[in-house]
Amino acid sequence: MQCCVCWQKLKSTVMSTSSNNQIDCKSLTMESVMESLDPMQHDKYEWLEVIGEGSFGKVTHIVRKSDGKHMACKNIMCEDFEEEDFDNLQGELQILKELDFNGTPKCYGIFCDEDKTVSILMELCKGGHLYERMADSGKEGHKLSESLVTKYVTQILRILQFLHSNDIIHCDLKPHNFVFVSKESHELKILDFGLSQIRGKGKRCFKLQGTPKYIAPEAIDKRGYTETFDMWSLGVITFEMLHGYTPFATGKKMQGSLVNPQIIMKTISRGFKNVRRKSKGPWFNRHINISPEAQDFIVSLLKKNPVERMTAKEGLHHPWITNNTEVNHNEWILGDKAFKHMEHFANHSSIQTVMMPLIVAEAKKLNAFLIEKLDEDFMRIDEDGSGEIDFDEFLNLINQLDGMGVDDEIAKSWFTAIDVDASGTVNHDEFLEFFAWEHVVNTDIRFWDLMEKFDIDDKGYVTMEDVEKMLSKCDDSKRLLGTPAMRGFQKLFDESKEGRIEIEKFTRIMKYHHAEYDSQEFPTESFRIKGASMYLEEESTSEETKGSHIVRVNRKLHSQYTMMQ
Fold it and tell me: Which of its termini does the chain have fewer beta carbons within 10 Å around, N or C?
């Protein structure tokens, strides 16, 4: 009975965009979408060789007889599916319906047969998997040349930047899930969204899944994860391409075809060591020569603390990438999405102003290459070299960014927002302040980490004394003393129970407080409180978070981590 319920739920997802069992091509926004009927009419296609097989189905090279179009048909047999399998497939179909990007295979149609077989017609990529390209490299240990690896990593970074900007975590990055368009091509496409999750705003995912060798430590340690999960996996893949083996599946205990996943994950939980040794393991191999830039790139991804890990966008500005590939060196560190966040920055309240010295201090901890890139961007915008950006120069920048479509009046309001001292120009410190806001406040995991620091003694709440202690650590904090911002903050604590604010509410206030919303409720935010009593309670998933295992924090119910299966 359970299987029948899941099957009907899955089928309704596939057919939800149309009343005649046919996928609505316009709603999918996919290129070259073919007309499809339900069930699939197999006689309209020539079925050639099987190009891949798995536990629940196979992928076949087919040709559409009407126009000779070559495609790949992924047949998924759902007869023996458990509920979790249906959830994964449902999530994959949901993502496929939304994707429209060069780094993902085009989807031409999805069919849903009554014999519980789902057929997905996709772009045919016949160049083989990345793993096969590594195996065929001819080099000792299946290594690839560094110049070639940077080409592949750059493509993967752009794919991840696209996915993460759409709140999609792939959760199963590995060389087997990247395929080349053709044997002669170096163009990569990403495959298999069966374990992917769509992360809701302000949420962490907790479901432990993926291939053990590539799983991020925060997922193993049940701390919850965001898009940083994929960035760790990319660090492992990059190491593997340059060394010919993965860093966390080596050593005497891991020899042979049957490797205990628990041993691998225990090794991952201990982290990666930035040292060079003679033996294989989670460190660099002294016998394998790779550049210092490549080492730094890998280390920047294999940070055990996900807060310190590079994002995909930041990775594209790493010197190892910019110096070795034909990337656009004029690409701005602050893209169009960052500037669209200016409205939030413009409307932040005086209370949130208290955070600015701390946010700037956090931003200054960035990798040196990001600070250098930010300085370069400032000088490029400052066309007359005055050391300050005027509105005309700012407007020129806005016009250079693709897809902005902003009129002068809105651009002026944005400019006024970052012109903190109302001088009519934006100096370097003000430019850094906005970048810091974008870097911390609009990156969930970094913002949560900053908020946790206010709870100095892990007591579960914040006092005015905590705020003052935090601010005392910043050189620039003295300018806030006696200001309306500090008085507003004091008023918040004076009006709160016992002069303290629960950490969850404090985080919501600092994230969402708007000058006009002083008396209104704030949206719910889920985050981890370090060392605090917690209870992880499963939420019902909305349409946008199906297939995800989302949890929220409720401190009042329990005193330890409890994973809801």
Answer: N
Q: Note whether 414 and 339 are within 8 A (CB).
A: yes
Measured in whole angstroms, how far is the alpha carbon of residue 361 from the centre of its chain? Answer: 24
Distance, in Å, from the CA atom of 111 to the CA atom of 37, rounded to the nearest integer, reads 7
| Of the candidates 206, 301, 204, 221, the residue with the CA atom closest to the CA atom of residue 265 | 221
Q: What is the DSSP letter of 18?
A: -
Are 171 and 316 spatial neighbours (Cβ–Cβ below 8 Å)?
no
**Which CATH fold topology does 130-322 show?**
Transferase(Phosphotransferase); domain 1 (1.10.510)
- How far apart CA 528 and CA 545 sit, in angstroms, is 19
What percent of the residues of the chain are helix, what percent strand, and what percent coil, each to the nearest 5? Answer: 45, 15, 40
Only one residue has tokens 């009593």, namely 533
Contact assessment for residue 501 and residue 462, using Cβ atoms and an 8 Å cutoff: yes
CB-CB contact of 235 with 220 (8 Å): no
373-386 residue pLDDT tens? 888 888 988 999 99
332-520 belongs to CATH 1.10.238.10: yes
209-214 — which CB contacts under 8 Å span 24+ positions?
209/171, 209/172, 210/171, 210/172, 211/172, 211/174, 212/249, 212/261, 212/264, 212/265, 212/268, 213/174, 213/246, 213/248, 213/249, 213/264, 214/172, 214/173, 214/174, 214/246
pLDDT class of 347 with cuts at 50, 70, 90: low
Nearest-angstrom CA–CA distance, 11 and 477: 57
2-123 is a CATH 3.30.200.20 domain: yes
Residue 155: CB atoms within 10 A of its CB come to 19
Are the beta carbons of 482 and 350 closer than 8 angstroms? no
Structural domain spans, the chain: 2-123, 130-322, 332-520
223: which 2 tokens? 């701390």
Task: Give the separation between CA 183 and CA 188, rounded to whole angstroms.
Answer: 11
Q: Which residues contact 52 (CB under 8 A, 6 or more apart)?
A: 58, 59
DSSP 403-466: T----HHHHHHHHHHH-TT-SSSEEHHHHHHHHHHHHHTTSHHHHHHHHHHHSTTSSSEEEHHH
Report the C-alpha gap between 302 and 268 in whole angstroms. 10
CA distance 177 to 14: 23
pLDDT by residue (tens digit) across 394-418?
888 877 765 556 778 888 888 887 8
Instruction: Compute and round to an integer the Cα radius of gyration of the chain.
Output: 25
pLDDT band at 48 (very low <50, low <70, confident <90, very high): very high
Residues near 120 by beta carbon (within 8 Å), at least 6 away in sequence: 73, 74, 76, 93, 96, 107, 109, 110, 111
Amino acid at 460: G
Cis amide bond preceding 39, omega within 30: yes
